[in-house]
Design brief:
Blueprint (H helix, E strand, L loop, with lengths): L1 H22 L4 H6 L6 H8 L4 E3 L5 E6 L5 E7 L2 E8 L7 E4 H7 L1
Antiparallel strand pairs: 1-2, 2-3, 3-4, 4-5
C-alpha cells in the first residue's frame, strides 16, 4: 500500500511540474541562450513562437511574456537582434545583452 502511495505522489508531482513549465512561455535557461546577432527565426527556435511583436519607434521588438508578467524581449534591426533584455526571469534585477555593450568590454 505504501509503495502505491509513493508512486501516486511521484506521478502527481510530475504532472504539477509539467503544468508549471507549460505556463512559462520563456524560461531563464532559454533567455541565457539568446544572443545578439540572432535572427527572429533563430530566437524563436530557442524560445518558441508564442511571442508577440511590440510597437517600437525603431526596428522590431518581439516579446515573450509569461503569465506571471516576467518576460524576455529582443530588439531586431535589419533582421538581426541587437539587444535582448528581460524582467522577472533572472531574479529581481533587469538584465540586458546587447551588441554595443559587448563591444565596449573588448
Amino acid at each position: 500500500m505504501r509503495r502505491a502511495s509513493l508512486w501516486t505522489g511521484a506521478a502527481l508531482l510530475g504532472v504539477t511540474l509539467t503544468a508549471c513549465a507549460a505556463d512559462q512561455v520563456v524560461t531563464p535557461d532559454e533567455y541565457t541562450r539568446l544572443m545578439p546577432g540572432m535572427t527572429l527565426v533563430q530566437a524563436q527556435q530557442v524560445v518558441g513562437d508564442q511571442g508577440q511583436p511590440v510597437q517600437a519607434i525603431a526596428g522590431q521588438v518581439h516579446r515573450w511574456q509569461n503569465e506571471d508578467g516576467s518576460f524576455a524581449q529582443g530588439t531586431f534591426l535589419a533582421g538581426r537582434a541587437v539587444d535582448f533584455d528581460q524582467e522577472g526571469l533572472m531574479g529581481s534585477v533587469s538584465k540586458s545583452k546587447s551588441k554595443s555593450k559587448k563591444s565596449r568590454r573588448r
